[in-house]
Design goal:
It contains 15 helices and 20 strands. By secondary structure, the chain is of the alpha/beta class. The protein has two domains: about 5-325, TIM Barrel (Alpha-Beta Barrel); about 330-385 and about 425-530, no CATH class. The strands form four sheets. It has an eight-stranded parallel β-barrel with strand order 1-2-3-4-5-6-7-8, surrounded by four helices. It has a six-stranded mixed sheet with strand order 13-12-14-15-17-16, sandwiched between helices. Strands 11-18-19-20 form a four-stranded antiparallel sheet, with helices on one face. It is globular.
């Protein structure tokens, strides 16, 4: 692909959830839960009119707006009309409907109604339908809906992990097919409104991508960044999808920065700056910030930028123009491939795919593989911070400051800045593929690690072939037939069968391929993006771009 064929990453912002009333829905937005906290928060600022709000977004360099749809459709038509008049693309988000209902029968999921999709498509500005944390709501089905156990894509109790994954995928495929056919029947391109899957947990990326959704990893939040992005990049590449990225300012930390509520923003301005650069350098098709009320304050007559708004403006107006990219996320190539079945286990080993029966301990082998590949920096018992061993400072702020005292212009003066969430976790050019990956997709990795609960015969044949061609393959013994459970030299490479990815044999086999412990590297074609820790906490990173000769 030539440089001129690349599309520049489009930059967007998601609407407010605490600061001011929705400019098109007014009082209606104060009558429903707008956050996942389980509480109704009254708006903190005065209410701007729609024109002033859109003007503020344009001043921030916003190219598309991610709109929190009101489940009662309040102001929906007016919002679409205004987006068209101001020539701004819009993505419709389902978060408020997920939280408040109405839900699709037998699920905890809100789907944008057909007539709303068509109205938005007729405006010419619709670019997607954002499903908010659908992996979270499949696993934790009782997060919002309290009248029963209704996972996001359907009930999976009693099914095996493979069966549950297939059922979730089939449900997603039906919804993707419905939206595509709806658009086609009404004279639009079938992919005019792709379904985008926004993930807080690094699970189900491959299930969603295989079923037709666009992966959208959240960065910051409570994620281990390199793990999150290597998994999403692999899913997008394996299944030929676009990739979006959400820079989510909700998080665990506190400090002397503008704070709307406990946990928001839960990352420092310097971390936000590094995260935006990190996300951009992954070359997604779209990148947006969640939410705009961390970036702006409305003081009855005009919008004023917060410190986070200043960071965003510098990113849009200085960093992006100075760093044009000649690669796409689809150009990602791996030196290390991690293969595992996507069982939706992020470390709690419970409710896998929404199944309330106990999970398989073999799925936890994935975490030990990540511990190995990350020089021990990613914990061996989970893939995000919602696992034992992490205490979030935001809980102290929640206890100390009642809701009516927010926002805090300079954070809490009674609590010192506390950071438990770094950005930097060193891995050496890793991509994650699922148990169905075929050999052509693997490229020419030097190290392949196969973990998790199952492996297809096609993928087993592929990794054996890779070993014969020179790769080191480290595979869990339960994934291969007995006849292949002996470690050996295989062709030009090595075949290493282990029962523990942190045992001596696995460590010895992987050691020469793991790169430096002070560098996280991701390669896109001939371009290597290298990240280095730039402060002790790891909340700030510096980067280098190295262009290798063809």
């Amino acid at each position: 692909m030539s440089e001129k064929e690349y599309r520049r990453t489009k930059l967007g912002i998601q609407g407010p959830v605490l600061a001011w009333q929705d400019p098109w829905a007014g009082d209606a937005s104060d009558r429903l839960m707008r956050t996942g906290t389980g509480l109704i928060y009254p708006s903190q600022d005065a209410s701007p009119d729609a024109s002033t709000f859109i003007g503020a977004m344009k001043e921030l360099g916003t190219e598309f707006y991610v709109h929190h749809m009101m489940p009662g459709l309040d102001g929906q038509s007016d919002m679409i009309r205004d987006m068209a008049e101001h020539d701004m693309d819009v993505c419709l988000g389902n978060e408020y409907g997920n939280i408040n209902g109405p839900w699709v029968k037998g699920t905890n999921r809100y789907d944008v109604p057909d007539d709303v999709i068509l109205e938005a498509a007729r405006s010419g500005k619709l670019i997607g339908l954002l499903y908010d944390e659908p992996e979270h709501l499949q696993i934790n089905a009782g997060q919002y809906r309290k009248d029963g156990w209704y996972p996001h894509w359907g009930e999976t109790d009693g099914l095996t992990l493979a069966e549950a994954g297939d059922k979730v995928g089939a449900s997603i495929s039906l919804r993707v097919k419905h939206v595509r056919e709806l658009l086609q029947k009404n004279g639009f391109e079938g992919m005019a409104a792709p379904l985008i899957s926004e993930h807080v947990f690094p699970v189900m990326f491959h299930v969603k991508a295989r079923s037709g959704m666009i992966p959208c990893p959240k960065i910051m939040k409570e994620s281990f960044q390199s793990l999150q992005l290597a998994t999403a990049l692999g899913a997008a590449k394996q299944y030929g999808r676009s990739m979006w990225i959400c820079a989510d300012l909700w998080g665990p930390d506190i400090g002397q920065w503008f704070t709307r509520i406990s946990g928001f923003p839960g990352h420092s301005p310097e971390e936000f700056e590094s995260a935006l650069r990190m996300g951009y350098l992954m070359a997604p098709t779209h990148l947006f910030a969640e939410n705009i009320d961390a970036l702006l304050h409305f003081n009855h007559s005009r919008f004023e930028k917060t410190v986070f708004g200043e960071v965003w403006s510098q990113f849009v107006n200085e960093f992006v123009p100075r760093h044009p990219l000649n690669w796409s996320h689809a150009d990602a190539e791996a030196d290390i491939v991690l293969i595992h079945a996507d069982d939706s286990n992020f470390g709690q080993n419970a409710n896998l795919f929404g199944n309330r029966e106990p999970g398989s301990e073999q799925s936890s082998s994935v975490f030990r593989a990540w511990h190995l590949l990350s020089h021990g920096t990613i914990p061996a018992h989970g893939s995000c911070m919602h696992i034992p061993g992490y205490r979030f400072p935001r809980t102290d702020l929640y206890r100390l400051v009642p809701p009516e005292q927010f926002p805090l212009v300079n954070g809490s003066t009674e609590l010192s800045q506390t950071a438990v969430h770094p950005l930097f976790y060193p891995i050496h050019n890793v991509l994650v593929f699922d148990e169905h990956v075929e050999e052509e997709m693997l490229g020419t990795p030097r190290l392949i690690v196969a973990a998790g609960t199952r492996l297809s015969s096609v993928t087993l044949t592929a990794i054996r072939s890779q070993a014969e061609r020179g790769a080191t393959v480290i595979v869990a013994e339960w994934l291969v037939p007995k006849r292949l459970r002996e470690s050996c030299k295989l062709g030009q490479g090595r075949w290493i069968v282990v029962d523990d990815f942190l045992g001596e044999e696995a460590r010895e086999g992987a050691s020469i391929h793991l790169g430096s412990a002070d560098c996280w590297m991701q390669r896109f074609g001939n371009n290597e993006v290298r990240f280095y820790k730039d402060n002790e906490a790891g909340t700030r990173m510096r980067f280098e771009i190295h262009r290798n000769k063809s």
